Amino acid sequence: MSRKSMRIAMALLLYLPLGLCGADALAGAVFTLANKQMPEAFSLSSWPDSWRAYRDDPIQRKRLQFSAAVGGFVGFGLPALLLVSLTNRKKPLHGEARFASHDEIQRAGLYGERGVIVGKVGRRYLVYGGQEFVLLAAPTRSGKGVSIVLPNLLHYDESVVVLDIKMENFAYTSKFRQAHGHHVYLFNPFSADGQTHRWNPLDAVDRDPNRRVGEIQAIGQVLYPTEQIKDAFWNESARNLYLGLTLSIMETPSLPCSLGEVLRQASGKGQPIKDYLQDLIATRAKSDAPLSDDCTAALHRFCATSENTMASILATLTAPLTIFSNPIVDAATSATDFDLKQMRAQRMSIYVGIPANRLSDAALLVNLFFSQLIHYNTVDLPATNPRLRHQCLVILDEFPALGRVNILAKAVGFMAGYNLRLLPIIQSLSQLESVYGEKDARTFVTNHACQILFAPREQRDAQHYSQMLGTYTAEAISTGTSRPLAWGSGKQASSSSTHSEQARSLLLPQELKELGDQRAIINLMHTKPILCDKARFYAEPVFIDRLKRISPFLASVGKRMPTQTELEEAAFVRRELSVEIPRLDLDLHRAKVERRVRPIQPDEPMDLSKLAMDLTTLPPVLAHDTPTPEEVNNLVDAFVAQLQWTDKVDDDISEKMSSVREEGRAQRTERNVDRSLVDRDREERDI
């Protein structure tokens, strides 16, 4: 039974004795009046006593029956008619749009603790739980970072991947998330100082000959898409050459397996590309490790084309790969420090930092990153794999700047079932349509059950939002005055008024533009639109207190709220709110690429800092008398895997031990971290 039905049933049960008493008293009074007497007082026993005394008198019996009918009609008939008229009232002609009440917000489940913070009503945060997606439409400089992204990075306790254009999110929240049990990584391939974790898209490719071709082609679909392309021949041909070169690298242990190496192999090493590839195939055929049939078939298909066609295919191949000619980008994508396949198996926070001035250059690389994130996390359902116990929130700031992410356009309808949750941020709907087209953009927006709208600046968006909020029926009064045509005619002036029902938008386009920078509108599925305040992190004591626990400088300001200058000093000057990031050894990477390997001389000094070990990454050994052989092997392998290797075979050993290192971190985290973000939330009672 619904809550409304239960309320109606309770009201009827409460009214039944009251109605009986009222009908009885009124029937007694009516019977007294029927006998031409004035009732002295209402009495519950008057009518029953009269019935027992006069029921045998035919005249009085009719009067008693009439009085009972009057009492019953007034006591039960009139309330029933009133109830029917209220429940079956005529619907307003032009609708009855309005903003949601507190009870409706409560019924929508927005006053929970776990989920995505979408706004604030009074002193209570609006937290959208579940698996549905959230879309934020906000113009530039409207506070989307400080009111949506940063509050959620200081609250959301599951895994996150965030596109961090300005590096503000990492600077403010990474140390807090690490302190609460997350493995924190920063992928910043354009870092001028080389401070970045590494991610190599080819490391995730399965080395099984039966599966690797399909996974290599999945990467090729991102680099050389054929959808929305008029002449797909060149991209298809370039993808074939990319497949052949990648397979040849994978089958050559002495070469680094990276997209940068694919670009270097495409140069021909000083030879025409056709001659280079034919020599490569012939040389390997005579060796003990010939190239596979899949590899040689792809390379032969390329070499079978004409010289002009071959040149165009080669140009198409290298066009998206020129980004890897940058030594920093090449080094940042030469190995992998984190596994995207583990996002739902353990708590991880990955910040993808791209400088704003390099966003256009990095669009394809970032597109590939998020494509691979979705590709490998939509394989196993959480219901079929108990290890996948965490949700992953993907925050995409400046989402259209990535370009068209084809896998996202197709997977948006079923991603939620895999515990992947999207929070894309766009400036306007027209910006999204320019990338995905009108139909795909509409489908993309429709799959977001919660849409947050900031005050728009574009008139088209304001009109669209106004239509989305709906209309209500307003009473319009028009008045008119008629005057005589000639003065002195003797006729009097007259006036008239006309009442009519008109449709009025809940908020007009100009009113939406004037919404201000403190307020937002939430359009939620199955709920009236919600007018709320923005939850700006720097004005919320609960978030500032969390930062004070991390930063000694912020803690020194005491109980007062820090100023913006003090927050920026803690984050960007003192760097007390962010974790330390390893620095790329560009000289070592260049030496590996150029294969500058030589024996060390007896009197040559060595830089022993290269042998420094991060003991926190080693798997724990339980305190007992004799460690098991498996524990000893895992400890030794994890220790050896941290060495800076110069041989590809040893690199493979290091890569194979990445899972051991991650398992060690996970076990240490589970053992040392006693409370999660939600536990701390419950203590503070602010959410």
From TrEMBL:
Tagged with keyword Cell membrane: yes
GO cellular component assignments: plasma membrane
Predominant localisation class: membrane
Residue span of region Disordered: 654-687
Cell location: Cell membrane
UniProt cross-references to CDD domains, sorted A to Z: TrwB_TraG_TraD_VirD4
Keywords: Cell membrane, Membrane, Transmembrane, Transmembrane helix
Keyword Cell membrane annotated: yes
Family, per entry: Belongs to the VirD4/TraG family.
A Pfam family it matches: T4SS-DNA_transf
Provenance organism: Candidatus Nitrospira inopinata
PANTHER family: CONJUGATIVE TRANSFER: DNA TRANSPORT (PTHR37937)
Superkingdom of the source species: Bacteria
Protein's name according to its UniProt entry: Conjugal transfer protein TraG
Topology versus the membrane: Multi-pass membrane protein
